[in-house]
């Protein structure tokens, strides 16, 4: 996705800060962080201010962060909370919005204790999620691509299904195929359940073999470029598979 789209999303947040009486918004939830910046690392915080944004992360992502994002990058040599608090103090921010449903109580209390006396954390829950509800044309194209990857992986994997194959092996084959086709990872834990277990809505794949005459439920999804797909299929395993 072009960096201009991430910048446009941040501008929407920046334009809404004054209306919400905020000096900045702190984003820590990974999907929201990726939505606003493109950063895919596992540890990061984005501070969105009027006219600029700063991504804070740790030294593991020094190169990756600068490759993925178009905003400023700060690499924290110590605890991320300490670096964030210092930046908030240096920038003289007073009211900093945060994601109450996405930030742990431990992180919230730790950051709150380290803030300057005149600075405060203000709940701004659901703001980014509301923006994410409306998909852009480029997002819809990425969702469609994820669905197509998922469908192709399913088609390739079931062509290898034979009686005696384990549920776990079919699940592994499905995930292998989706990764080969470009998925980052499964969008959730792949479900494969055969026979009487096919009635379980969230069965975990086991070492049980697939028997001829079994009904086999497959529930799978691919995450690609940050967008997830999800589909459920029911198979009937014949005694003799066509060649």
Question: TL;DR of this structure?
Answer:
This protein is α/β, with parallel strands linked by helices.
Broad structural category: alpha/beta
Number of strands: 12
The proportion of strand residues reads: 15-25%
Distance between the termini: 41 Å
Helix coverage percent:
25-40%
Spans of at least 5 consecutive residues with low confidence: none
Jot down its keywords:
243 residues, alpha/beta, three-stranded antiparallel β-sheet, 12 strands, 21% strand, elongated
Please explain how this structure is put together.
It is a single chain. The longest helix is centred in the middle third of the chain and has 22 residues, at 137-158. This protein is 39% helix and 21% strand. The chain is elongated, with a radius of gyration of 23 Å. The mean pLDDT is 95. Helix 4 (80-90) crosses helix 5 and helix 7 (137-158) packs across helix 8 (167-180). The strands form 3 sheets. Strands 4-3-2-1-5-6 form a 6-stranded mixed sheet, with helices on both faces. By secondary structure, it is α/β, with parallel strands linked by helices.
Compile the SSE list and pairings.
Blueprint: H1 3-17, E1 24-27, H2 30-37, E2 44-49, E3 52-57, H3 62-68, E4 72-75, H4 80-90, E5 95-98, H5 105-114, E6 120-123, H6 127-133, H7 137-158, H8 167-180, E7 185-186, E8 191-194, E9 215-220, E10 222-224, E11 227-228, E12 231-236
Parallel strand pairs: 1-5, 3-4, 5-6
Antiparallel strand pairs: 1-2, 2-3, 7-10, 8-9, 9-12, 10-11
Helix pairs in contact: 4-5, 7-8
